[in-house]
Amino acid sequence: MKKIVISTGGGDAPGLNAVIYAVVRACYRRGWEVYGSRSGYSGLLDTDELIRLGLDDVEDIYSTGGTIIGSTNKGNPFSMAIENLAGEVQVIDFSDKITNNFNRMGFDCHIAVGGDGSLEIARRFAEKGMPVVGVPKTIDNDLEATDRTFGFDTAVSTATEALDKLHSTAKSHDRVMVVEVMGRESGWIALYSGISGGADVILIPEIPFNIEKVCEKITDNELHEKDYAIVVVAEGASAKDGQVISKGSGEVGRDEVVLGGIGEHVAAEIRERTGKDTRSLVLGHLQRGGSPTTFDRLLAMRFGAAAVRLIEDGVFGHMVALYSQHMNSVPLADAVRSRKKVQLDSDKVLTAREIGICLGD
């Protein structure tokens, strides 16, 4: 009988519970035990935070958002910020303690569900000898080694629905509505939702924008008796020769800069240059919430079941991946080597241009 521990790390995404559901059910069919590590690696750092997952614990969770075992985006065990009694922040490497706890508890494999940051941590544990299988999760869809990641389809659906609703209010008041969506270095959410939601302008990190081109598009709308406009902006988008706008370095223990504010910046520029009544809104974590779409549920379950098959075959240090509609596996080192960018000659970018959407260039 094998003993498996599963963790969910990084930002949450619709479909995490579907992965857990598939892993637990697939393991129990084989007579294996499954434990969940709360909040990323907290359960392996403090074994009191480990929870046994049985069939009753995962009943019907496949349709719910979030994760029943919790997640964190500031719990890198190789570099964890801890505040001592004197109020000083120390950075401590807990990886050896986690590895020792993993071995002491008798686990045979760790299933790490996460994006590039979480999978990089998993790769480092694999280098230390821990049997690891990765499952790709990110609403940004920016992992190069897999065609799709779960959570992306739901996030796009949420953003598209928001754009659909904004059309009526923008049209009623002859307004320009600027909508900021997630996408640090890749503009997949902005591109997919912008095209599907009838945007006039889509700004993505891959194409530094010229604000004059954006305003020209909005002015051109008026020449065609359309007095309103919808602008979709990925949070990582930037103007030519401009910097990515951020809110700072974030909380202690969080490595990445917290992006945000580009939507309001673009709205202010449009307002000043065109004189149009321009409003902005940030969809933010709304894109991470809610019940996963059918596509994301199925993909998440396929990933979970495939991860268990890798364990059964003794294939560790790999991530399950979707390639040409089939389940495959790739080494973790390859999975985190680069982020998937929007290709500027892709049919989706060409489609946007063909139907008259301005991409800021």
Which characteristics define this entry?
361 residues, alpha/beta, Rossmann fold, 2 domains, 7-stranded mixed beta sheet, 15 strands, 36% helix, elongated
Structural description of this entry:
It is elongated and about 70 Å long. The protein is of the alpha/beta class. It contains eleven helices and 15 strands. Helix 1 runs parallel beside helix 9. It folds into two domains: 192 residues, Rossmann fold (3-Layer(aba) Sandwich), CATH 3.40.50; 135 residues, Rossmann fold. The strands form four sheets. A seven-stranded mixed sheet has the order 3-2-1-6-7-14-15, sandwiched between helices. The chain has a four-stranded parallel sheet with strand order 9-10-8-13, sandwiched between helices. A two-stranded antiparallel ribbon has the order 4-5.
Radius of gyration: 22 Å
Mean pLDDT score: 93
Shape descriptor reads: elongated
**Number of E-state strands:** 15
Annotation field: number of helices: 11
Counting structural domains, the number is 2
Largest sheet: 7 strands, mixed
Portion of residues within helices: 25-40%
**Class from helix and strand fractions:** alpha/beta
Distance between the termini: 58 Å
CATH first level of the largest domain: Alpha Beta
The CATH topology of the largest domain turns out to be Rossmann fold
- Tell me the strand order in the biggest sheet: 3-2-1-6-7-14-15
For the record, the CATH architecture of the largest domain stands as: 3-Layer(aba) Sandwich
Strand content: 15-25%
**Would you list the SSEs in sequence order as H and E?**
EHEHEEEHEHEHEHEHEEEHEHEEHH
